[in-house]
Amino acid sequence: MLKKLHTSKVLSAIVIVAAILVVYGWIFNVNIFKSVLPGIINIKFNTAVGFLLLGTAVWLLEEKAEPRYVQWAKGIALFMFVFGLLSASQTIFDFNAGIDELIWKDDPNPVETKYAGRPSVHTSLSFVIISLIILFIQSKRMLWFCVISLIGVISVSALVFLNQLFGSSFLQAIPWLAKTALLTAILFLLLSTSLLKSRHLANFKLTFEQKVGVYFAVSLLLLIFIFFAISDNNKQRADSEITIRHTYERQLMSERISKMTAEMQSSIRGFFVTKDQYYVAAFDSLSIAIVREI
């Protein structure tokens, strides 16, 4: 138990330090602290503050000597639950609650960001889930919910991490995942693992059959999730290729019509100069050809 307790506090401390560095990066415009790698989505200021608060809450949960710390942790979790729910609702229901840049203004042209200063839907909902876990982690009846929810957050964050790290496009069909920052995914992995290693879940044990069932269910859901993402992404790519081909054909048609229009103008000039009926016939033939093209 001491080992689990130690691991939980170390991981939560890493999350706190990383969040402080991100906040420092925003205040003093140090880009490497905001996005880790150049040219990728940066972690929003609101998101960094959220990790700082939730990392602190997890640390406080491990303080057995001071029971009031648990109440402080739950107070933080309640605040983050409301923030995450409101932030996700803004994107899902398309309204602006005025909280995105309430504390700090986003960059003028942020990468892969539709709403300046707003965390992705995945980030906001993960904040909601982790906040609920902190609120219910002391209840024995809710341990299953806590463990399954943490496994879910870890699994999805791992997908986002791989997608951002290797530049894969299989999540492009799901924008609320594709637009999550690399550092955000890493911090969710650390924060979720710190909760799994917390003293409150130390006595939660699974039988071998239950472990096999959980691993099978998680693997199956991930495979279905990835299959859906890849399938939808392939459909979008096929639609894009059809659009490109259609645009190319229209461009060729436009060039043919432009060429025939120039020949019609030449026919008109030739008729006025020579009065030769040949030019009239050529003009009529070109007019019919243009109508057929259209």
What does this structure look like?
It is a single chain. With 294 residues, the chain is an all-alpha fold. It folds into two domains: 2-205; 207-294. Helix content is 74%, strand content 0%. The protein is built from ten helices and no strands. It has helices at residues 2-27, 31-35, 45-61, 67-92, 121-136, 143-166, 175-178, 182-196, 208-274, 277-293. Helix 3 (45-61) runs antiparallel to helix 4 (67-92). The longest helix is centred in the C-terminal third of the chain and has 67 residues, at 208-274. It is elongated and about 110 Å long. The protein starts with a helix and ends with a helix. The mean pLDDT is 81.
Shape field: elongated
Count of distinct structural domains: 2
Rounded mean pLDDT is 81
> Biggest sheet, in brief?
none
Proportion of residues in extended strands: under 5%
Q: Please report the number of helical segments.
A: 10
Distance linking N and C termini: 78 Å
Number of strands: 0
Q: How much helicity do the residues have? A: over 70%
Order of helices and strands: HHHHHHHHHH
Structural class: mainly alpha
Low-confidence stretches: none
